[in-house]
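note to self — DONT lose this again. spent like an hour looking for the file last time. sequence + predicted structure for the chain T wanted, 101 res
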Amino acid sequence: MRSLRHGWQPERMTDHTRPRVYGTEHDSPATGPQPGHTYRELTGGPLDGQLIEVTGWTDEEITTGAYLITPHTAYGPGGRASYAPTFSRPDGPWVWEGDVP
């Protein structure tokens, strides 16, 4: 598992310092990264600082990015935020590209 921008190390994380994984419930006890899984950090926009699990995704899916449902977009609850890797760092964090309905 790779370290992300903030230098987190899963084995040293507590429930209060572990980055939240997109799609998990806020009150879930295991909301942080899990050993053996692959993640990308989301930077900018409404999901800044969260991780998205890409375990099992194809290279094409990972390089394409995703529209992620979030209640905090220009389109209100249920809108989507577009996140994708940059061309210069395809295996790096995903950057917010904007909101979509």
